[in-house]
Please model this.
Amino acid sequence: NEPDATSSDDKDLLEKLQADETCNSLLKQYLTMELLESLQNKTTASGKSIRDCINSGLQYHTSSVGIYAADADAYEVFSELFNPIIAEYHEFSVDQSHPLGDGWEGDDSYFEHLDESNKYITSTRIRCARSMEDFPLNPSMSEQNYLDLMKEATDALGTLTDDLEGTFYPLEDMDPDEENKMIEAHQLFKSGDKCLQAAGALNFWPKGRGIFKNTTETFLVWVNEEDHLRFISMDQGGDIRVIYNRLKDAVTKCSDFLKFKRDDRLGWITFCPTNLGSTIRASVMITLPNLTAKGNLRSLADSLNLQIRGTHGEHSEVEDGMYEISNRRRLGVTEFDAVKEMYDGIKQLIEAEEQAE
Ligand code: ADP
Ligand code: CIR
Model:
């Protein structure tokens, strides 16, 4: 008899996941015992296993997804598990490829102000992620890798001028009050995310981590959090065009200095499969009291391919009726079209809100 290739620990954890009726993760939905056994003997180029990819989802049953790419080639090596998860999340089938070319191109005059009267939208934020070509993804990063990546990124950001010009703040040097203030202001990532911890993404924290801010605090870059780089453009109100163009401009300029990982089929490579492709999450902070009272906001948002998060980011609660609503799909759509999906959806939600008055 062949020895059982799957460690009993992994099998026990999967059995518990499958038995947990409160769990709705995509990992639970697509990982069968048979599939786990067949993936168990495979490793990525730098020796990462399927367990390295799914540890967070096995540990935390509240995960909505539950899997990360422990290595850039994990999407290929463990494709039998990643592909159906990617297909469901992004509505992107195995025979599809992410659009080629400059995804930022598009007619920006389409993006009119979403809320001229400032009645519904408090703020708008558009972010995208990039992985650096010459560095491994988080779990394989050495301490030196983190420091080198931070240096390369800050050198590139240092070339930005005019309204993009700014300052880099290393997390290591930040006093806790300053850190909390930036988190409360929705600028900085939180430390100690349990999913990222379980995924091996918090090694050597806070070394090599930090945030770049322009002087008006409308353009930010997260360095070495979940992804190597997260570029963010945000401001009060709903002027999508200005916020979109600022992000497009910044990423395009940084691309002259930095080489990013891109896959022919999956587009820009990210640590979490939900961020692949265009990597765009465009969101508004919005109050829609009539729809909230009617109780159909969530189903409406869902039908418009929009995702609702709480007032303070992923896995947070909705406070004082303030919803954060963004596009859900990022892969198979260009950067422009991902933002357009949010724009069109929010426009419809505001119309529905006004009709519900
Ligand atoms: P990400 O968008 O990078 O995936 P999170 O969901 O953790 O990460 O959000 C990061 C921060 O951005 C949180 O503080 C969240 O409240 C804030 N944020 C998201 N959208 C908006 C918005 N439209 N206006 C203001 N802050 C926002
Ligand atoms: C989870 O599985 O819940 C976390 N790893 C986050 C997944 C990405 N989030 C999302 O798009 N909802």
In short: The two ends are 70 Å apart (CA to CA). The chain is about 35% helix and 15% strand. Residues 123-125, 127, 186, 230, 234, 281, 283-285, 309, 312-314, 324 surround adenosine-5'-diphosphate (ligand 1) (CB under 6 Å). Strands lie at 121-130, 166-170, 210-214, 219-223, 229-236, 262-263, 267-268, 281-286, 306-309, 323-327.
